[in-house]
Amino acid sequence: MIDAVLAGLHPPQLFHVGVVAADIDVAMREMSASLGLAWKGGKAKVMDLCLYGQERKVEMRIAHSRQGPPHVEVIQAVPDSPWALPPATGVHHLCYWSEDSAAICARLEAAGNRRVLGKPSAPSGYFLSPSGMYVEIIDKDLHDSIAGWLARDS
């Protein structure tokens, strides 16, 4: 079902592949050594988020590879959240951007995907399919902001 909903998105719109790690520092070191990736971000930041329909403050550590797109995003595991450590490591989510992200989000919800991050009708968010796949949708402004940040040297 998720394939039909995302049909308007194209491979160049795949912005990053997300990985949840038990230890973000170890994961970044391993991927640097094995894949030659350089990183931006990774410092702890408390974020105001809407998770499962509830407002929460969550300390997050997120890093993005400078190489890309698609970039690799590594997230420090957060218990009782969409970023809880999965039973097996690997890809956690795919992030797409769209100039009409609000319509993509609405189609995901209408197709039975549960919004687990973001307020109802927001133009960005995480969605969990009935089969357990996470998809993140971001709008063009957020895409451009992250892409610009990743392109800066500092």
> Whole-Å distance between the termini?
41 Å
Q: Which radius of gyration do the C-alpha atoms yield?
A: 15 Å
Beta-strand percentage range: 35-45%
CATH topology assignment: 2,3-Dihydroxybiphenyl 1,2-Dioxygenase, domain 1
Describe the structure.
There is one protein chain. The chain has helices at 2-5, 24-35, 101-110, 140-151, and strands spanning 14-21, 39-51, 54-65, 71-76, 91-98, 114-117, 125-128, 134-139. By secondary structure, it is of the alpha+beta class. The chain has one domain (2-151): 2,3-Dihydroxybiphenyl 1,2-Dioxygenase, domain 1. It has an 8-stranded mixed β-sheet. Strand 2 (39-51) and strand 3 form a beta hairpin. The longest helix is centred in the N-terminal third of the chain and has 12 residues, at 24-35. It is globular, with a radius of gyration of 15 Å. The mean pLDDT is 87. This is VOC family protein. InterPro entries: Glyas_Bleomycin-R_OHBP_Dase. It comes from Sphingomonas immobilis.
Secondary-structure map:
Elements: H1 2-5, E1 14-21, H2 24-35, E2 39-51, E3 54-65, E4 71-76, E5 91-98, H3 101-110, E6 114-117, E7 125-128, E8 134-139, H4 140-151
Parallel strand pairs: 1-4, 5-8
Antiparallel strand pairs: 1-5, 2-3, 3-4, 6-7, 7-8
Protein name: VOC family protein
Organism: Sphingomonas immobilis
Pfam family, one: Glyoxalase_4
Task: Describe the structure concisely for a colleague.
This protein is of the alpha+beta class and 154 residues long. It has helices spanning 2-5, 24-35, 101-110, 140-151, and strands spanning 14-21, 39-51, 54-65, 71-76, 91-98, 114-117, 125-128, 134-139. The chain is built from four helices and eight strands.
